[in-house]
Amino acid sequence: MDKEAEELLNDLKNRIDYFDLIGAGSILCAKENVPVQRISTAAEGSSAESVINKRILSCQRCDLFKTRTNAVPGEGNFNADLMFVGEGPGHDEDIKGKPFIGRAGQLLTKIIAAMGFDRKDVYITNVVKCRPPNNRNPQLEEMEACKEYLFEQIECIQPRVIVTLGKVATDFFIPGSVGISAMRGKFHLFRNIPLMPTFHPSYLVRQQGNRELRRKVWEDMKKVMALLSK
Ligand code: URA
Fold first, then answer.
1. Among 90, 159, 200, 201, who pairs with 107 as Cys (CB 3.0-4.6 Å)?
2. Planar angle of CA 48, 52, 58, nearest 5 degrees
3. What confidence category does residue 40 fall into, taking pLDDT thresholds of 50, 70 and 90?
4. What mean pLDDT comes out for the span 28-41?
5. Can you give the CATH number for the domain in which 140 is found?
6. Is the pTM of this model over 0.90?
7. What distance in angstroms lies between residue 197's CA and the mean position of ligand 1's atoms?
8. Pick from 67, 121, 119: which is nearest to 98 by CA?
């Protein structure tokens, strides 16, 4: 079997594992007038999270796989009420395979702590799961190729609130959004889930002396906390 066919087969098997896991296996093998028999291909003990992660780690849907060191699926609690979505892994994240662990990530960790949570209480991920070279913005076709993973993560986690970090992530959920300054501070809806855009922590890092920016992010997070406490 050639390499491409093998990759396709692998991807298909991972998808079947995923559908089987979410209880849709019967759809895949249901035939007219034949008693439904669920195919059981999900590895024993696998969770939705590990099935999705496995697919992300071996993904070659766009060219970003060629330059990545590691794909970065996301981390945290797969039952979290609160989900943070950034744009894409940077240098440190690419090396370690974990989201938001560089300078911007350390600031995000502090914001999460100030909200009364630990990183492991929330789920942190990105729109694209592989680092764009030189930290450029992810391109439309890269986001398009990757979006199924993020949508599956949201479907499984079913967060009560999504916080989008920066313009790229906000635009991804709300196409044609009018810029982060105008979008932040208000809840928007994505598939009925309240979504709060705020400034990207790396912008805060770059504008280190700007207390006004930090105050605005904190105002946004207070609204998120108020909603979660209901
Ligand atoms: N910036 C992002 O958008 N995501 C990361 O994971 C790190 C930096």
1. 201
2. 150
3. very low
4. 32
5. 3.40.470.10
6. no
7. 15
8. 119
Cα–Cα distance for residue pair 39/226, rounded to 1 Å: 44
> Is the pLDDT score of 6 beyond 70?
no
Q: Which residues contact 126 (CB under 8 A, 6 or more apart)?
A: 72, 74, 85, 86, 87, 88, 89, 99, 169
**Shortest-distance atom of ligand 1 to CA 165:** 3
- Site to probe by mutation for ligand 1, drawn from 103, 126, 146, 204 as the one with most ligand atoms within 8 Å of Cβ, is 126
Torsion angle of C-alpha atoms 71, 73, 76, 82, degrees rounded to 10:
130
| Residue found by looking up tokens 């979006």 in the block | 147
Determine the average pLDDT of the residues in 41-70: 87
Question: Do 221 and 107 touch, CB atoms closer than 8 A?
Answer: no
Provide the number of structural domains found in the chain.
1
Give the residue whose CA is nearest to atom 7 of ligand 1: 100
Contact residues of ligand 1, CB 6 A cut-off: 86-90, 93, 99-100, 102, 104-105, 126, 202
Tokens of 57: 């780690």
95 alpha carbon to ligand 1 midpoint, in Å? 13
Output the CA 75–ligand 1 centroid distance in Å: 12
pLDDT of residue 177: 87
Give the distance (Å) from ligand 1 centre to CA of residue 2: 35
Which domain range does residue 144 map to?
A: 3-228
User: What are the strands of the beta sheet with 193-198, ordered from one edge?
Assistant: 75-76, 123-126, 82-86, 161-165, 193-198, 188-190
